[in-house]
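Why does residue order matter? Because the sequence determines the fold. Keep that principle in mind as you read this record.
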Amino acid sequence: MVAVGGGHGLAATLRAARRYAGELTAVVSVADDGGSSGRLRRQLDIMPPGDLRKCLVALSEEGSALAAAFEQRFEAEELVGHALGNLVIAGLMGACGDAQKGLDEAARLLGAVGRVVPAATEPVVLKAEAAGGEIHGQTEVMRSSHIRRVSLVPTDPAASPVALAALAHADQVVVGPGSLFTSVLAAVAVPALAEGIRRSPGRRVYVANLGPEGSETAGLDVAGHVAALAAHGVEVDVVLADPAGISIGKLGVPVVEATLAKANGRAHDPERLAVALGRLVG
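Structure:
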C-alpha cells in the first residue's frame, strides 16, 4: 500500500494502514516552509523534516517512548519551537549524506513498520494561482482562498525513485485526507509522481476530509476536492467519505460512505479507517 500526502492527514492514514497493509510506503510532500521545518530547511539546506517526522512516528510502535520524544518541542532560547525528531532527522540526513538513507535510519531507530519517502529528491517551493494572484510558499498558500491551481518551483523536480518503485507494485494507493492544496496536491504536483499514481496497478482511493481546511477549501464539497485532483493529473477509482463530514456533491466515481471520525468528529479514527480501507484493497 502507498499513501500520498503530508501533515496530520497522511499520519492518520498511516496509523490506519499499519493495521492491514503488508508492505507500506508513505510518500510525503517536501514543500513545508514554516515553523521548525522551515527554519531547518533554510539554515541547513535540507528536506523540511516535520511532515516526514509525523509519518515516522505514525508508523512506530504505539506507546514508544522514543516516538513520544520525537514529538517533544523545546522551549528554550535557540531551540525554541524545534521538535526533537526534526533535529534527529536533520542530523541523520547529514551523517548519512543522503535524505533517504537518513530517513531509513530514523525508521530503524523508531521500529517503524513501513518506509517514509520524500515526494521529490529536493525541497520544493509551493506556488498557487489564487484570487489574490500568484502566491509563493506553503505558509502563504494556506492563508489564501479561491485557489485554482498549485505547482512547484522547480517546475519538474525529480520524483523519489523509491516512491515510483512502490507505486509500480502497489495493490492500493491512498490519497488524503489532509489539506487539499498545501499537503495532498503539494505532493502530487511532482509531475513524475502524478504519472506514477496514474500508472500504478493499485486501486486509487481518495479519503475525504471531515471538514473544510480554513480559507484554503472553504465552500468545496468532496466532488470539488476530487475535481481538483483530476485537474492536477490524478484520477481516483473510489472515494471514501464520512457522511457526517463535508457534503459529497455530484461525483463521477463510486463513493463508499462509512463512519470514519473519532467521537469528537474532528479527526479520523485509525481503527474505523483501517476497516474501511481494508475493504477497498484490489
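Residues 2-278 form a domain with the Rossmann fold fold (CATH 3.40.50.10680).
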